[in-house]
Amino acid sequence: MTARPDAPAPNPHATEAQVQAALSDNKLAQVLYHDWEAETYDDKWSISYDERCIAYARGRFDAVVPDAPLPYERALELGCGTGFFLLNLMQSGVAKSGSVTDLSPGMVKVATRNGQNLGLDVDGRVADAETIPYEDDTFDLVCGHAVLHHIPDVELALKECLRVLKPGGRFVFAGEPTTIGDFYARKLGQLTWKVTTEVTKLPFLSDWRRPQEELDESSRAAALEAVVDLHTFDPSELEAIARRAGATEVHAETEEFAAALWGWPVRTFEAAVPDAKLTWRYRMAQYRAWLGLSKLDEKVLRHVVPRQFFYNAMITGVKPGGAGR
Ligand SMILES: C[S@@+](CC[C@H](N)C(=O)[O-])C[C@H]1O[C@@H](n2cnc3c(N)ncnc32)[C@H](O)[C@@H]1O
Question: What sequence ranges are listed for the domain Methyltransferase type (predicted)?
C-alpha cells in the first residue's frame, strides 16, 4: 500500500482566514473540513474494519448489484474518506486490488494507513472526482460511499467514472441522502441537538453537558457542513443523471426509513453529550435497535413506502461496450 510522494500535505488546523475563504469556495471547504476531521473520522462514525463494517459495506453493494461476478481485478474509490467502503469491500472479496482517492490529503493519508494495517493491495492518491487522474479504461469497478452529494457536477463525475472504467466495467455509489430523507433527518437532528443542549443546562444534569468550547466547535463544523453538503437526490433523478452521463444498466435502490427516523436523533444525541456517558451496553443496545429497524425496513416497509421516502440512495451503472460485470 503506497501514497504518492508528490501528494499534498494534510492541513488539519485551518486558519480563520482559510475558513472564511472556504465559505465561498466549495472545493477548499471540502479539503479543510475533511482534513480537519480525518484523524477522528473513524471514531466519530463508529467505522471499523471488522465483521460489522465488512458486512455493512458488502450489504450496500449487494443491495444494488446482487449478482456481480466477483472478484473485480482492479477497483477505484472516489471520496474514500478513511477507506470505509473499498477497504471493507475488498476484505469481503469484492476486488483484488484498489486505489483509494479523495480530495482531502488528510483522508488519503488515513485510508492509506488503514489499508496498510489490513495488509491489502491498495494505493492512495489525492484526486478530484470531477477530473480523475487516471488513464481511460483502467478500472473494473469504481465505487464511492457518501461522496456524490459533495461533488458540484455529479454528471461530470459519473462521466469521469465511465471514462476510467474498462468497457463493461461498473460503478457503484451508496450512502447518498435522498431529498425527503435528508429533510426529516435534518429536522430531527436539529430538534434533538436543541433539546439535549438545553436540558443539559439543568444543574443536576450538568455532567451530561459537553464543555462549551466543544459544543461551539461542533456548531462551527456544522456551519462548514452546510457548505460541503451540496445535493440531495430523488432516486429517479439520480438514475436520469447516470443515463445522461452515458451509463447503461442503470439502477437506483433506497433503504433505511424506520432505521433513519430512529438513527438520526440517536446519533445527534450521542454527539451532544460526553463520550464517557455512553456505555458499551448502551452502544450495543442502539446498534441492535438499528439492526432490528433495518430489518423492518427491508422486510416490510420497502413494500409499502415509496422509495423516495427512504434515507439512503444507491446507484449503479455500466460502461457500454463490454460484457457488463
Ligand atoms: C462524507 S465523506 C465520506 C467518506 C467515506 N467514503 C465514508 O463513507 O466514510 C465525503 C468524502 O468525499 C470527499 N470529497 C468531497 N468532494 C470531493 C471531490 N470533488 N472529489 C473527491 N472527493 C471528494 C471528502 O473529502 C470526504 O472525504
Answer: 76-173
Q: Is 77 in the pocket of ligand 1 (CB under 6 A)?
A: no
- Ligand 1 nearest-atom number relative to CA 38: 27
Mean pLDDT is lowest, of 22-26, 190-194, 220-224, 315-319, for: 220-224
Counting DSSP H helices and E strands in the chain, the numbers are 13, 8
User: How many angstroms separate the alpha carbon of residue 255 from the centre of ligand 1?
Assistant: 21
Q: Whose CA is nearest to atom 22 of ligand 1?
A: 79
Domain parsing of the chain, residue ranges: 2-179+229-256+306-318
Q: Is 161 close to ligand 1, i.e. is its CB under 6 Å away?
A: no
- Give the phi and the psi of residue 308 in degrees, each rounded to 5: -70, -10
Q: What is the pLDDT of residues 7-37, one digit of tens each?
A: 677 776 777 777 777 888 889 888 988 888 8
Domain 2-179+229-256+306-318 has CATH 3.40.50.150: yes
Q: Which atom of ligand 1 is nearest to the CA of 130?
A: 19
CA-nearest residue for atom 1, ligand 1, is 146
pLDDT digits (tens, 9 = 90+) for 122-179: 999 999 999 999 999 999 999 999 999 999 999 999 999 999 999 999 999 999 999 9
pLDDT at 10: 74
CA dist list (Å): 95 to 59, 69, 77, 89, 136:
15, 10, 11, 7, 19
Residue of 150, 160, 172, 314 to test ligand 1 pocket, by largest number of atoms within 8 Å of CB? 150
SS3 state of residue 93: coil
